[in-house]
Amino acid sequence: MEDKILLKNFKNIVEFLGEVYGSTCEIALYDLTEGKNEVCAICNNNLSGRKVGDPLTKT
């Protein structure tokens, strides 16, 4: 349960940092709990095209 609360708080930080650093800086948060290894929040993803749910690495 605590992990979900932390992720929720970090998602807010991702949005904040994306606005602070602007559209030339991509900010991504990965959920590494329980083997998920996926993007759970991303801002300014126009740089890489990654989206929520994408894996940590592409095969």
TrEMBL record:
<protein>
    <recommendedName>
        <fullName>YheO-like domain-containing protein</fullName>
    </recommendedName>
</protein>
<dbReference type="Pfam" id="PF08348">
    <property type="entry name" value="PAS_6"/>
</dbReference>
<dbReference type="InterPro" id="IPR013559">
    <property type="entry name" value="YheO"/>
</dbReference>
<dbReference type="InterPro" id="IPR039446">
    <property type="entry name" value="DauR-like"/>
</dbReference>
<feature type="domain" description="YheO-like">
    <location>
        <begin position="7"/>
        <end position="58"/>
    </location>
</feature>
